[in-house]
Amino acid sequence: PLVESGGDSVQAGGSLKLSCAASGYIASRFYMAWFRQAPGKAREGVAQINGDGSTGYADVVKGRFTISQDNIKDILYLQMNNLKPEDTATYYCAARPGWMVPPNLIETDYINYGQGTQVTVSS
User: Maximum CA pair distance of the chain?
Assistant: First the structure.
């Protein structure tokens, strides 16, 4: 399973680092990603990372968020800086088998999702 942690309530301008325990996924070179879903809105892609370490980001988080992974510990991270109230959402870790074609950062391109962790940013 994918298990997220690290969500919290912070002030605007603050930082958080989310973690996702991804046992077996990263070591098996799955494509990994972070998605988020705010109340009443569709789930949206935030960032993704391939087995070779290449990354991609949604425009709204570029320059503020950084996705990374620990290939030994099988942990996926999302470092979030300069948080804004509009970043408030439940954040999900996602995975897609590495033998599949490279994904776009969209919900339907990823197969496995965790249960989510809540991030709340107050102004």
Answer: 43
